[in-house]
Amino acid sequence: MSKFLTVLLFLLAFICVSCENKVLIPSQEISDNDTEEDIPDEDADTTQEPLFDLKVEANEKNVLSCRLTFSTSDEKKTFVKYYAPTHSGYKISENEAKTEHYFFLWGMRENRDYKIEIYSDEENQELLATTEFHSGILPDYIYKPTLVVNDKESAERGFLLFSQTVYHQDPQIPLIIMVDNDGFVIWYYLHDISGVAYLDDPAYIQKTKTIFTGIHKYPSMDDIPAEEGIEIDLEGNVVWKSPDLLGSFYEESSWHHEYKLLDDNSILFLKSEYPDNIVLSDRIRNVDRNYNEIWNWGYLDSPDYFDTVECSNPEDVWCDWTHTNSAMMFKEDNEVYFNSLWLGFFKMDMTTKNILWKFGKDGDFTMLSDHPYPWPAGVHDPKFADASRKRILFFDNGLTERFYSRIIEYEINEEAMTAEITFEYDGIDSGHSWFAGGWGDADYLENGNFLVTKGLVDEMHNSSVFEVTRDGRVVWELYTGHNDDFMIELYNADKFVPPLEFLE
Predict the structure, then answer these.
(1) E strands of 153-278, at which residues?
(2) Residues 425 and 440 sit within 8 Å (Cβ to Cβ)
(3) Are residues 103 and 170 in the same domain?
(4) 367 conformational bin, left if phi > 0, alpha if psi -120 to 50, beta if neither
(5) Is position 20 within any domain?
(6) Residue 50 · residue 75 · CB < 8 Å
(7) Nearest CA among 257, 264, 276, 298 for reference residue 382
(8) pLDDT tens digits for 217-265?
(9) How far apart are CA 181 and CA 284, in angstroms?
């Protein structure tokens, strides 16, 4: 082999190794006064560098994220910026100084080259190193939504979390996803379960930076012991799961409609009761993480108050009597609230289990507002505006009298027992009206807007999530996937401000 060829092969090998690494640590500057003894030796111990052992590892559970680790010779508090040419990206900071550093970088968009910059978070901030990560392609089982409205000045900046439920598809895929304000999928989680199920009612827990969700188990899982709820971290690791149980969704052995984590780390869910195999009633249960009973109540426990069984449709083979779809528990005030699709919204004393009042048509409040349809008529998932519990928001499907959907807010006065409508949006005047024959959700957002989840709409329309202001402007809207073969339906959605700093 010629000397020229040998040198050429050596240079090519060196270039390939350098390109593969894709890590840049800023070199030390040498002043004019430095001597040869002051110049760093390239073969010296790298632990003397301000940063070393830098590694970027892809997350096998989610191709839109990676793990970043590195060491520093001295204890340093650091922060990381990561961004792509078409995505402004985020900043994540450490809370304390250390020598061994770990960052989980998430919220990326698919198929992009992200530049990662590591800085010392001190009085004189210093760029310590840069590296790169290329995000992967989304799996084909994720149906991408479509952003149709985005008023960036008025919409709350955050991530939308929801379960992907494909209407008329069997089996379902147990999948939840997040979407950013520009409509891009930036996170997903696929659950590995030993039967047919999908994830339901997911919620982001700010305190622990985890996601808590129930598992909607299909009847084919009646004889398969499996969890009915899980908590996962943002990396996709299951950090808790409920005890393995037999039974499926809406059976007496399982839950339905709502499965959520309370502030005291206990779990609140609803379960069915069939007193005569025909009538469907409900029970509210509060249990600890090991499913030890803390509190429970069912309609059958209060026969003096709920003394008449009426079926929503007398011609059905079963009697849908109470159809409870949400409950709220405030233990510090000894209060429980629950909502029946057909019967109304109730407040209960947690200790005595006495019903304190009913809100709705034929309830205990006097309506002060002049409105042709003043009361809710088939509602989902009521929410209080704040801790005073004087204002309450309903997603109102209008199933018993109007037959169009709306969100409506009331202010209630428990001393005078009066109610007044403080906000209503049905979209009729703006051409944005809808009718969700089932499902649906409405939430208060931190910026004062309302988040509305259009639920089980007919197949000619899209399910969507939209954000509306108090003056009735739709400032953000996301359509779910929909074509001739499938339709993504939404029971609810959760929009939250993530623990990331948005870069501009």
Answers:
(1) 159-163, 165-167, 175-179, 185-190, 197-205, 210-217, 229-233, 238-241, 256-261, 267-273
(2) no
(3) no
(4) beta
(5) yes
(6) no
(7) 257
(8) 999 999 999 999 999 999 999 999 999 999 999 999 999 999 999 999 9
(9) 35
